[in-house]
From TrEMBL:
Residues of the ER membrane protein complex subunit 7 beta-sandwich domain: 46-155
Main localization, broad class: membrane
Phylogenetic classification of the source organism: Eukaryota, Metazoa, Ecdysozoa, Arthropoda, Chelicerata
Alphabetical keyword list: Membrane, Signal, Transmembrane, Transmembrane helix
Protein name from the UniProt record: Membrane protein-like protein
Membrane topology: Single-pass membrane protein
GO molecular function: carbohydrate binding
Species this chain originates from: Leptotrombidium deliense
């Protein structure tokens, strides 16, 4: 009877050990790992604290903030997760979190251009706002520089400045430079005036041609 009791006690002990081991494995696979962090940028009385959400993998997992700004996302299996903070007023940069099979968690900065580069960040996660969201563009006001840099104004002002500055530069130059500038000027051609051309065309030109015609007729005779 005593021997049977010993065997029964030993059997129950082995069953308890294996059951505890199985429960640990089940809990590890069921509950998984937890991502922890804190979001800063607003006080406890800020109404946006309630509207702030923690999104993992674009909404696959969703978390909420506590009063002190901390959060926990549990039941995560080993893998890579993108953690984002959504807030209607403040902008936060997302963070990539990698969890290996041993449960080691590593946080790194998200780089969409150079995906191979790794910039490791401290863990637990710390989210700081980069700035407020701008939903509306501020109306532009009139400035004096807008008027001065207007193309039409520049076309009017620049020639006047050249007319004022170039003569002074030429006068201040050496005599040899002045001679070269004079030689570079275009030569002037003697062009008849328009009034003389018109009078010669309608009056003088016709009278001057009549004697030549008479001489030609006499020679033929």
């Amino acid at each position: 009877m005593c021997l049977f009791a010993k065997y029964l006690f030993f059997f129950n002990l082995m069953v308890a050990v294996f059951a505890d081991h199985d429960l640990n494995n089940v809990s590890a696979t069921t509950y998984g790992h937890t991502i922890e962090g804190k979001v800063s940028g607003f006080g406890e009385s800020n109404p946006t604290l309630q509207s702030t959400r923690i999104m993992v993998n674009y909404g696959e997992y969703l978390g909420f903030l506590k009063v002190d700004g901390t959060f926990e996302i549990s039941n995560l299996q080993p893998g890579s997760y993108l953690v984002e903070v959504t807030n209607p007023d403040l902008f936060y940069e997302p963070i990539r979190v990698d969890i290996n099979s041993k449960g080691k968690i590593r946080a790194r900065k998200v780089n969409y251009i150079q995906t191979s580069s790794v910039h490791q960040l401290p863990y637990p996660l710390k989210f700081k706002p980069k700035g407020p969201f701008k939903y509306f563009h501020i109306r532009e006001t009139w400035k004096l520089t807008d008027f001065l840099f207007n193309p039409m104004v520049l076309m009017m002002i620049l020639p006047l400045l050249l007319l004022l500055v170039l003569p002074k530069m030429i006068n201040a130059a050496d005599p040899e430079t002045q001679r070269e500038m004079q030689n570079m000027q275009m030569p002037k051609y003697d062009m008849p005036e328009l009034s003389e051309m018109m009078t010669s065309l309608f009056t003088g030109g016709s009278k001057g041609n009549q004697p030549n015609k008479l001489k030609a007729v006499k020679k033929k005779q």
